[in-house]
Amino acid sequence: MTKKVMTATAAISNAVRLAKPDVIPVYPITPMTKVAEYIADYVANGELDTEYIRVESEHSAMSAAIGASSTGVRTYTATSSQGLMYMHEVLFAAAGMRAPIVMGDANRSISSPLCIMNDQQDSITQRDAGWMQFYAKDGQEALDLTLTSFKVAENENVLLPAMVCIDGFIITHTNEIVDVPEQEDVDRFLPPYVPKYSYLDPEKPVTVGSMTDSKYYMDARYGVEVAMNKSVKVIEDAFKEFKDIFGREHDLIETYKCEDADIIFIGLGSVCSTVKVLVDEMREKGEKVGMLRVVSYRPFPSEKINEAVKNASKLAVIEKDISFGMGGALYQDLKTTVEGKEIIDFVIGLGGRDITPSTIYEVLERTKNPSKIINWIGIEEDD
Questions:
Q1: pLDDT tens per residue, range 118-143
Q2: Can you give the three-state secondary structure of 19-43, one letter per residue?
Q3: Among candidates 142, 148, 144, 126, which has minimal Cα distance to 35?
């Protein structure tokens, strides 16, 4: 390991360099542009031998990634916000064609109005596209999850694309200490991708992504569902191997002082780092609180969440997205999978609005004395 000070975009780029993808089609977009630039530098100076494709749009980037992956090679791309929206059509194609592409997404708000700051609406909107989704809290985890995503996506029991999400600007542009693994260790963890099943080869022609009818379409979608469910064990096994080789431990969720907590804050990404600090502060004031961070949003770790919150009476869901008329997406998933708990939803930080300690304290007070189930924090709500 080599400790370096770098941003999360640099950390991800190092992970990509170490993973050695054969093809990288990418179209730069703020705040993920630096990933495209760092990778271009690696290619230019000979640190990475890959087919680096400068495409004309994000739709083209994902289309090229699907084509490359269909030939049986390791493939990577990166995007953010409107770029991810532009990919929407072909995201479904990638999952349906069982293309194990890995993509980095810098979470950024969606227009209109146009705002380039952070929330998680972009990736949450794609939660039903058949992609695995992982949410990193910092640069180190972004690097680790990128390497792990290649291993999981390319597993013969999964063969689904994976998205590693990081909070735009909050961690994409924040410098921190990151352990960068040695190439020989990464090669042990992530050997070259050798596809087991048929792929595009002029010598052995096959058809992929062809038109079908209702007789076969539902079976194909069910296959994605089965693979997503199977990915849970594959992810856990990959995390165990990662710890054995690199010494860092990861899980589908992160918990902090949940065992005896009466109220547990639940969220995604870097906001949970703020919450984790405040849990200690609140406990000093006599509040029995804990924190649960969902690392793997798809597949959704229902069993682990239920076990972690079993002793709590209330769950305060803090999330930077909204499914209009229904609250946040994470709230909806928890309502579906967690029984016997009072679950209260808090929409916060949209468009990069500051999430301060006072924000989380307001969440605590509204959870203790709820007047409504879905709450928007930081604005004047109409009754």
A1: 999 999 999 999 999 999 999 999 99
A2: HCCCEEEECCCCCCHHHHHHHHHHH
A3: 142
